[in-house]
């Protein structure tokens, strides 16, 4: 995925995502698997916003990784944490200094 053509394909996809693109993400170059290996390898991530999982899957169907013979996993995030703190802890410390 290091060619100029690949970079252009990714840039074009990001552009097509438009307002749905939350974070272009980053590729993963080195990895280590803990536990049972499911046979898949994390290649990177991109965060999008969508009305629901089906809409997110529709956005992912144009991902350049698929044209390269790779796979894309799409999942819905459940906000349980904010930064380094649990979301429940954040609401109780709003306005707190120190």
TrEMBL record:
One protein family per Pfam: YCII
Annotated organism of origin: Amycolatopsis acididurans
Name the record gives this protein: YCII-related domain-containing protein
Family: Belongs to the YciI family.
The YCII-related domain, residue ranges: 35-78
InterPro entries: Dimeric_a/b-barrel, YCII
Top-rank taxon: Bacteria
């Amino acid at each position: 995925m290091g060619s100029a053509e690949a970079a252009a394909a990714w840039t074009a996809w990001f552009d097509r995502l438009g307002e749905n693109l939350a974070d272009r993400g980053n590729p993963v170059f080195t990895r280590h698997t803990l536990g049972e290996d499911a046979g898949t390898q994390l290649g990177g991530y991109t965060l999008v916003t969508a009305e629901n999982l089906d809409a997110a899957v529709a956005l992912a169907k144009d991902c350049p990784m698929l044209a390269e013979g790779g796979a894309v996993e799409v999942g819905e995030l459940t906000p349980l944490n904010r930064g380094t703190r649990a979301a429940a802890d954040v609401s109780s410390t709003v306005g707190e200094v120190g």
